[in-house]
Amino acid sequence: MASTIYLALPFALVLLSISLRVSALSLNYYDQTCPKAESIVKNIVRKAMRNDRTVPSALLRMHFHDCFIRGCDASVLLNSTTKNTAEKDGPPNISLHAFYVIDLVKKQVEALCPGVVSCADILAVAARDAVSLSGGPTWNVPKGRKDGRVSIATDTRQLPAPTFNISQLQQSFSQRGLSMDDLVALSGGHTLGFSHCSSFQNRIHNFDATNDVDSSLQPSFAASLRRVCPVHNKVKNAGATMDSSATTFDNMYYKLLVQGKSLFSSDQALLTSTRTKALVSKFASSQQEFEAAFVESMIKMSSITGGQEVRLDCRVVN
Ligand code: HEM
Ligand SMILES: *[C@@H]1O[C@H](CO)[C@@H](O)[C@H](O)[C@H]1NC(C)=O
Ligand SMILES: *[C@@H]1O[C@H](CO)[C@@H](O)[C@H](O)[C@H]1NC(C)=O
Ligand SMILES: *[C@@H]1O[C@H](CO)[C@@H](O)[C@H](O)[C@H]1NC(C)=O
User: Fold this and answer.
1) What CATH number did the domain enclosing 253 receive?
2) Which domain holds residue 243?
3) Is position 147 annotated in a ligand binding site?
4) pLDDT tens, 206-248?
5) Does residue 49 fall inside a structural domain?
6) Is residue 307 part of a domain?
7) DSSP characters over the chain
8) What does the record's cofactor remark say about binding (predicted)?
9) Does the annotation mark 65 as catalytic?
């Protein structure tokens, strides 16, 4: 019995190290093959932000969507074809935009180092730059992702919905190897950007059999959301900013969340379990603790890999 374990253990370790090496990402992945790749991403993101303040939130959300469907393999960037409707044309694509920023980077990087830098890596680095150029933390992004060849509109049903409760959120994250702590930290991405009325409609009209409005919403905040988003909303693209400082990456999201001023049921749900609630309070009182946790969880999320090739055009498979 004992000897079987002695024999099996080194064998298992060899197998484990092989499988890790195959999918492993590294910080210096492009050092020899395209050393300028990251500075190109940063310069283009910085310039794009100057013209369009919605670029950072768009890039961060795009990376999250990418990683949650088939791993971070740039499947979110693929165009639909005559035979296939792609993820970006799937139902919850409502806030996806700024694909042109990735195209601009890809063009410049291809001119310098053809066929080397994956679209999935470009997106991961761009999401990091979006955060740091918005006043958030910076970190080293492990690289070496490959781009996938598949993007299917109906796969977007696998994304967590804003109506999810804590157990549904936990399930969605754990299926991707992410913990409850990751859930709380990554939800802090909701410090940037904008939401359409449809995403929080459930909380402000016809909430349940007894209440028109979700009673966990702070009353005057709920009233302001109802003014912007009436039942028969006729204003195209009506909605609300994710927090009161939506172009700055800070811990305001958590400060407002504890006051009942979050947009989604999925945000509010973070206050319904003891562990997640404690983390929300910690992040609400410490920007530093939030940033450290966000960085750790972003690296985890962005290391879910899945692709096979380095696409030459981020919108079409090779
Ligand atoms: C926990 C599960 C999550 C749910 C249910 C969720 C849901 C949503 C919804 C419904 C919107 C608004 C879409 C619209 O109406 O335009 C949104 C926006 C956004 N989400 Fe999340 N999200 C989640 C996690 C994340 C994560 C992990 C990140 C990144 C770390 C993220 C970053 C963003 C950003 C930046 C926006 C604003 C997009 C923009 O302004 O264009 N979200 N999210
Ligand atoms: C992808 O779709 C966009 C928007 O529909 C279009 O402008 C672009 O030319 C397409 N790119 C490719 C390579 O098909
Ligand atoms: C979202 O999907 C609709 C069709 O479902 C499509 O017309 C629209 O262009 C898509 N938006 C983006 C940003 O790709
Ligand atoms: C969350 O929603 C699911 C599906 O509606 C339900 O089965 C579950 O009991 C809910 N969990 C909590 C904690 O409310």
Assistant:
1) 1.10.420.10
2) 166-299
3) no
4) 999 999 999 999 999 999 999 999 998 888 899 999 999 999 9
5) yes
6) no
7) -HHHHHHHHHHHHHHHHHHHHHH--BTTTTTTT-TTHHHHHHHHHHHHHHH-TTHHHHHHHHHHHHHHTTSSSSGGGPPP-SS---GGGSTT-TT---HHHHHHHHHHHHHHSTTTS-HHHHHHHHHHHHHHTTT----PPPB---B-S---GGGGGGSPPTT--HHHHHHHHHTTT--HHHHHHHHGGGGSSEEEGGGTHHHHSS-SSS-SS-TTS-HHHHHHHHHHS-TT--STT-EEESSTTTTS-SSHHHHHHTTT--SSHHHHGGGSSHHHHHHHHHHHH-HHHHHHHHHHHHHHHTT-----B--SBTTB--
8) Binds 2 calcium ions per subunit. Binds 1 heme b (iron(II)-protoporphyrin IX) group per subunit.
9) yes
Which domain CATH number covers 72? 1.10.520.10
Residue 316 lies in a domain: no
Find the 88 Cα to ligand 2 centroid distance in Å: 12
Tokens 């890809």, located at residue? 106
Residues 166 and 155: their CA atoms lie apart, in Å, by 22
Residue 308 lies in a domain: no
| Co-location of 48 and 140 in the same domain | yes
Q: Which atom of ligand 3 is nearest to the CA of 96?
A: 13
65 lines ligand 3 (CB under 6 A): no
Is position 182 annotated in a ligand binding site? no
How many domains is the chain built from? 2
pLDDT for the residue numbered 6: 47
